[in-house]
């Protein structure tokens, strides 16, 4: 599996991750999901959302509310896109989904995780939940220049 992402989107995501440090940043990935042999799944727009988690647990949790989701859905529809993934950052942790991430994950979406080390962007990885919801599987991340 592969997730393509336009370089400008990735730049905006990295900025969001760094600016939310030491809290987790989060947001939604808008794009299109075509057959893997052709264009595949591609992120064309980043929709940042505030981390709605209420307390200091924000440093290792994130929350996107239904109304933020709806706003992203409306914007996606206006652009002829759909919500294809969810990004969040891991302050001072590897970009590997936590047990909590697994518990909260839905099938279909790509889960892009960005590591932030002492305020600087570290490594990144994208994941998809297996159909039986028991674990995530890694997907390749391919950065595309803006057409
Ligand atoms: Zn996480």
Task: Give a verbal description of the structure.
- Helices cover 22% and strands 40% of the residues.
- With 147 residues, the chain is α/β, with parallel strands linked by helices.
- The two termini are 22 Å apart.
- The protein has 3 helices and 7 strands.
- The protein has one domain: Cytidine Deaminase, domain 2, CATH 3.40.140.
- A 7-stranded mixed β-barrel has the order 1-3-2-4-5-6-7.
- The mean pLDDT is 94.
- The site of zinc ion has 6 residues, from strand 4.
Provide tags for this entry.
22% helix; Cytidine Deaminase, domain 2; 147 residues; alpha/beta; single chain
Number of helices: 3
Order of helices and strands: EHEEHEHEEE
From the alpha-carbon coordinates, what is the Rg to the nearest angstrom? 14 Å
Can you summarize the main beta sheet? 7 strands, mixed, barrel
> SS-based structural class?
alpha/beta
Question: If strands are numbered along the chain, what order do they take across the biggest sheet?
Answer: 1-3-2-4-5-6-7
Low-confidence stretches: none
CATH topology: Cytidine Deaminase, domain 2
Shape: globular
Q: What is the oligomer described by this structure?
A: single chain
Report the strand count.
Answer: 7
Write down the CATH class. Answer: Alpha Beta
Number of spatially distinct domains = 1
CATH superfamily: Cytidine Deaminase, domain 2
- The CATH architecture can be given as 3-Layer(aba) Sandwich
Q: Averaging pLDDT over every residue, what do you get?
A: 94
What is the terminal separation in angstroms?
A: 22 Å
Report the bound ligands by name, code or SMILES: zinc ion
Secondary structure: helix percent = 10-25%
Portion in beta strands: 35-45%
């Amino acid at each position: 599996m592969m997730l393509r992402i336009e370089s400008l989107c990735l730049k905006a995501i990295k900025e969001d991750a760094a600016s939310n440090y030491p809290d987790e940043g989060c947001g939604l990935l808008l794009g299109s999901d075509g057959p893997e042999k052709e264009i595949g799944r591609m992120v064309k727009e980043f929709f940042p959302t505030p981390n709605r988690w209420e307390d200091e647990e924000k440093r290792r949790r994130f929350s996107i509310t239904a109304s933020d989701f709806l706003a992203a859905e409306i914007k996606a529809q206006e652009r002829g896109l759909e919500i294809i993934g969810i990004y969040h950052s891991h302050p001072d942790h590897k970009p590997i989904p936590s047990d909590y991430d697994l518990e909260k994950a839905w099938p279909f979406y790509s889960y892009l995780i960005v590591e932030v080390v002492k305020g600087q962007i570290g490594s990144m990885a994208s994941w998809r939940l297996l159909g039986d919801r028991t674990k995530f599987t890694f997907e390749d991340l391919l950065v595309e220049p803006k057409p």
